[in-house]
Amino acid sequence: MSEVSNPEVAARDAAASPLIEAEWRRYTEPLTALAGRLAGHLLHTEDGQIRHELYRTLFSQLSAAYFSQLQADPRYPDFWPMYSSAYNSQAPNPDNSHYLTPIDDDGVYRISGFRGTVKRVSFSIGTGTLYTRGTMEGGAIRSLGEYDLDDLTLGEDGAFEVLLSRERPPESGGNWWQLGAGATNILVRQTSYDWINEIDARIAIERLDGPTARPRRTEQELAAALQNMADYTEGSVRVTALYFSTIRQKFGFNRLGYIDNTEWAPVVTQRYAYGAFKLREDEALLIECQLPARCRYWSIHLTEDLGATLDYINRQTSLNGFTAHAGEDRIFRVVISAQDPGVPNWLDTTGLSTGVIQSRWEGCDAWPEFSTRLIKLADVRAEVPPDTPLIDAEQRESAIRRRRKGAQMRKRW
Fold it and tell me: What pLDDT does 184 receive?
């Protein structure tokens, strides 16, 4: 269809354009400086692919900022997908589906739904302003309380309902969780071992102490939220980059140790082990640990230096207590390398020479100690027990196809 000029529209454009352009620049110009301010956190600025992966991460978090700043509302809560393969920052655990909603600490809320069959469903009541208001003035996130869905009274079909408030309502005789002073958010973690067969929970939240109908956002509210888009985008990348820098300083490269994750609203019954890897193309990092006799959940996965978890849908960049292989000696051995060493427990660096290792251990009767050895890739078979299965290309492809299927069956957005 040919363009038809409209004098009336053209006149309005001429009158309104200067104002609209000025307002739009006010919100978009702060975005142009973000990559430059984060450049110092890159270990390989000479690598064009690494630079463009930074740009990708920034766009990812700009998209997440829309949910956080323009969709989310503590008066009308609605869990939004905070971390995923798309919103990939702050080193998300591939086994988790993460959802967050802002709240007011003086509000009264009801969460209800169905438990499902995933390994764990937990709710962290958190404080901090980055993920709720887009600013770092109140910090990123810190836990005020951790609640496990399995501690509630559930129906036979897994149905549940729980009230959240500063004080228990007098008429409430059922499930109740306390909102601590200063609470700004609720973070949900659904943790799955068997991605294909486990069923995610179904969860809804509503606020009970306010009007049901949500009003339009005012001009002032929209302006404030739009002004925060750049700060959210930068802050969500910077906090992890700084944290990973601390890990490299603490452990160096190719070592693994435990870190206190209090500032990150952790699962309180879980311990977190971190390390940084640095490998040449012909090298591999062999990590070994004795598995606990009892452990509710454990996993290990790889991330980029800035905190994006490596592609866990199409590559084997993570393992957990369900997918990992362990010999009769109950020692978990995993090989980190760029090339497939032909063993079951391989973590694929996807070609990166540096990155970060994360391992989680929850509800265990003992906390594993890790040994690490830098070896030649060609020597992997000689360094693992003789009864370690050999994984050929066809078996690896089949495993990747199962991962891809399982990841898509999970609730992600």
Answer: 97
